[in-house]
Amino acid sequence: MALLEWNEKLATGITEIDAQHKRLVAMVNSLHEAMKIGKSRDMVAGLIGELKDYARSHFDTEEKLMERYKFPGLDPHRVEHNRFIEKILDYDLNLQEGASVPPMDVMLFLKNWLGSHILGTDQLYAPFLKEKGVR
Ligand SMILES: [Fe+2]
Question: Of 4, 53, 59, 99, which is most buried with the most CB atoms under 10 A?
């Protein structure tokens, strides 16, 4: 069974963003599956690479929408995005330097992100953008 199931609490109601958030849930689940069978160290570098791509394109989607509709909470939201990116770049640097990145660390970081950012901060723009007609 997957660690995380998509549910309505995670949803923002904005199609493109929910599709991107589902991709992150899938990444958490595949890390979990790999941990269960003792293969997570083999996939952690690939996962960090995917998270770099993901963060760039997903945060860009969110920030452009917030900019376009002048969401007043954009600045603090962007600060959280930048912290996420810094953490991923940190993991990436560790890997490039030949250090290991413990899969459990990445798991805790992502679960914390889901709980605090997707369930918290992202829910702040959702009603605002929907009110502006974003679907
Ligand atoms: Fe966000």
Answer: 59
